[in-house]
């Protein structure tokens, strides 16, 4: 299978990349076809080759259909490769477009925080101040799967914007009561809008008192609608103007234009170790960005894009809010977003915390996997993942598209280990 190696241009020889040159570095990725000067970024060519071997082995044994990688340090891209086939008998390319699902959340969160910086709201504002249906929330006590009947009681407090940003509002993913009300899990082909869906979500009971538990759910879809309410713009237009154009993210969309749909990778499925890797037949997951009504802008799971586009977004975050000559957020806002915002609560069983849109690594959370305390990350349900380590000035992303995928957590854990294992100089060179 054809493998395309795309790496850093040779003129970057000095230690550390001036931020004014980072956008040029990213722009010129396609001009370079061999691994060069990675030692200037503290990486070992030989050790990066182990990562290549690992990915190729997983493609050969039928675990993976394809993958694209992106690793950058101090603004220098040291590993950007494609493996496998984007579709049967069609070689993968570095500019392939992937469904990024929950990686949408970080982008929408940044979009909302731009409005925060402009004084549009406070984090402890009740959501009902802007979306009235969220007033006087009820907590679900009992639910009957037989007839969908339920009982609830009034919550003691209101849901705040901060609760939504930290997934502590008690609003879930995939609860039967929500599915019954046609709240999309990831996407929809139906002719509905954020306004149609989110106003109705406000009438549904929540799972617990706001702020008392970490409950991962459609919170960021609600925030996407909040952006529409506050800005007066559709979410897609707002993100285009405020984030995608300034950062040079030219291939990121909710729904692909006609001239780019051929670059969308095929979605596969492999729900168990014993199941064969095969093309997904899910009625919407595989086709939503190119078919259907194209009216629902899922703030929590709807974007598709290239790995290089998201690399630009990650570089902006690690730069303290600036990239491509554009200031997206202030450094102190990024600092606040990547600080523990959930107190003694934890993200599931990972021993980590959650900020505003990101999982935050703790000392306990990096005991079994390499990484720095306060590094931050998240991933997407279709099997995409990113990791941002400010202490090492390091970002890395690994993209494939498989859903469901039994090997998801182990795959990205191994990729993370191999990335840090290839980095042979710490951030003191």
- Distance between the amino and carboxyl termini: 37 Å
Q: Biggest sheet: strands, sense, closure?
A: 9 strands, antiparallel
Shape: globular
Low-confidence stretches: 1-17, 30-34
Number of helices: 11
Strand and helix map with partners:
Blueprint: E1 5-6, H1 19-27, H2 45-60, E2 66-73, E3 76-87, E4 90-91, E5 98-99, H3 104-117, E6 138-143, E7 150-154, H4 161-166, H5 176-180, H6 194-201, H7 219-231, H8 235-247, E8 268-270, E9 278-279, E10 304-305, H9 307-318, E11 322-323, E12 326-327, H10 331-337, E13 353-354, E14 359-360, E15 376-380, E16 384-389, E17 394-399, E18 402-405, H11 408-422
Parallel strand pairs: 8-18
Antiparallel strand pairs: 1-3, 2-3, 2-17, 3-4, 5-10, 6-7, 8-9, 11-12, 13-14, 14-15, 15-16, 16-17
Helix pairs in contact: 2-11, 3-7, 3-8
